[in-house]
UniProtKB/TrEMBL annotation:
Its cofactor is Ni(2+); Fe cation. It is found in: Cell envelope. This is Ni,Fe-hydrogenase large subunit. GO terms for molecular function: ferredoxin hydrogenase activity; nickel cation binding. Coiled coil: none annotated. Transmembrane segments: none annotated. GO terms for cellular component: cell envelope. Mg(2+) binds at E41, I402, H450.
């Protein structure tokens, strides 16, 4: 058996991929190896509860806003679990949802154009694909421009991005004006137009009515998603990269995302069934450990999380049909993430129009130092379901546990199952394809080894 170690590039942080090849030249085993352990959960122990609002957004430079929102949700749920009233206005709820979704959109755009498409330049070097070439390609630069545009929405309401802490238990710290709403709407409208013209090659109304691959190709007027699909078919990635048929979404973002779990069929989420596995984490087992990341299981099973899981738990017809034909292949997994850009932007526009600037931004809750017990905070982040669990006594953190999307998708194996990403590369014959399949999960080692 031949063993190959690959240092992945174009990922968030440092990740190695260890591949084991059989005599037929196929991958027989794979290990996702992350060494970048930082220990945020240990840092939080003994800290004042509100310190988490400043510390947790620093867990990741790409999805730090999601960590802030999960932290706020956990603290607000502590109030509810302690039977202490806490009130949040609809205005504050809408703005927090808008800024969280702005972060998701910027990540998806960067990921598709900066991390995914450039891999195909190795297969199809031509004048056409040069448009996607990093740093110099026209489409590469345009995507970077628009991904930077959407985070201005976070800055309008939150003051900065990344690492903003404008959301707090009881609401938000900003007092946006009507002109701020207009500015945010203008940015979202520009993004919608860009996505319609450049990515989908059709209006959003037409796209949201698409039911299958053939209908999409017949309607699209040459968008970049059409180019991507063509690349996948020519390389076989329309069918390769499949993993476990288990999916999880822990939070509802009405009306575009519904929570749920899919095993053999869709069932209701039960947070008590979520368990971390540490059998192969070096911190807990130096003999068998190969990474500093834990894995996660739901009812004992590995689960995929992220945009594809969200489309399946939301029962979106297009993806139910794609999944029926191609399962969770590289093509379908990437398409789901690109699809989410448009669905979120359309809803962001609606949420912005619903904001009543005359409502209060913040209603001060009672003294947090009276809080006891534990609570969960959970949101949908760019890469999937994010869960924070905090245990508190007199306003001091006794323990803090974080389960990130990358732990679901790329965390360590257990004694029964490999991680979904490790499973997805088995049987491939090309190390480049193995890297591409891994990137289809949107690799983030800093969240993986937080």
């Amino acid at each position: 058996m031949r063993v190959q170690k690959i240092v992945l590039n174009r990922v968030e942080g440092d990740v190695n991929l260890k591949l084991c090849w059989d005599q037929n030249g196929k991958i027989s085993d794979a290990y996702v190896v992350a060494y970048n352990y930082r220990g945020f959960e240990r840092i939080l122990q003994g800290k004042d509860l509100l310190d988490a609002l400043v510390i947790n957004p620093r867990i990741c430079g790409i999805c730090g806003h999601a960590h802030l929102m999960a932290t706020v949700n956990a603290i607000e749920n502590l109030y509810k679990n302690s039977s202490i009233d806490i009130e949040i206005t609809e205005k504050a709820k809408l703005i927090k949802q808008i800024t969280l979704c702005s972060e998701i959109v910027q990540n998806h755009l960067k990921w598709f154009y900066l991390f995914v498409i450039p891999d195909f330049l190795n297969f199809f070097p031509s004048l056409e694909t040069e448009k996607f070439k990093p740093f110099v390609g026209e489409k590469w630069k345009k995507a970077l421009k628009f991904s930077s545009e959407i985070v201005k929405v976070i800055a309008i309401f939150g003051g900065q991005w990344p690492h903003t802490s404008y959301a707090i238990p009881g609401g938000i710290t900003s007092e946006p004006l009507k002109t701020d709403i207009v500015d945010a709407l203008s940015i979202v409208d520009r993004l919608i137009k860009y996505v319609e013209e450049e990515i989908f090659g059709m209006s959003y109304e037409d796209y949201l009515n698409v039911k299958d691959l053939e209908e999409f190709l017949s309607k699209s007027k040459g968008g970049d998603l059409t180019t991507f699909i063509d690349f996948c078919v020519k390389t076989g990635l329309d069918k390769e990269g499949q993993s476990y048929e288990h999916f999880i979404t822990v939070s509802t973002v009405y009306p575009c995302i519904n929570e749920g779990v899919i095993k053999k069929k869709k069932c209701k989420l039960n947070l008590k069934k979520i368990k971390e596995v540490k059998d192969f984490n070096i911190l807990y087992n130096k003999e068998t450990g190969y990474t500093y990341a834990n894995g996660v299981r739901y009812d004992g099973l590995p689960m995929q999380t992220g945009p594809l899981a969200r489309r399946l738990t939301s029962e979106t017809e297009l993806f139910l049909n794609l999944y029926r034909l191609y399962k969770d292949s590289y093509l379908v997994r990437v398409w789901a993430r690109v699809d989410e850009i448009l669905r979120i932007l359309i809803n962001m526009k609606d949420w912005l129009l619903k904001i009543n600037v005359n409502e209060k931004s913040y209603i001060k809750p009672k003294d947090y130092k009276k809080l006891y017990g534990e609570a969960f905070g959970y949101v949908e982040a760019s890469r999937g379901s994010l869960i924070h669990k905090v245990k508190v006594e007199k306003g001091v953190i006794k323990s803090y546990n974080i389960i990130t999307p990358t732990m679901w998708n790329l965390g360590s194996r257990c004694n029964k199952f490999k991680s979904p990403a490790e499973k997805a590369v088995l049987g491939l014959e090309d190390p480049l394809k193995a890297q591409m399949v891994l990137r289809s999960f949107d690799v983030c080692s800093v969240c993986l080894t937080h």
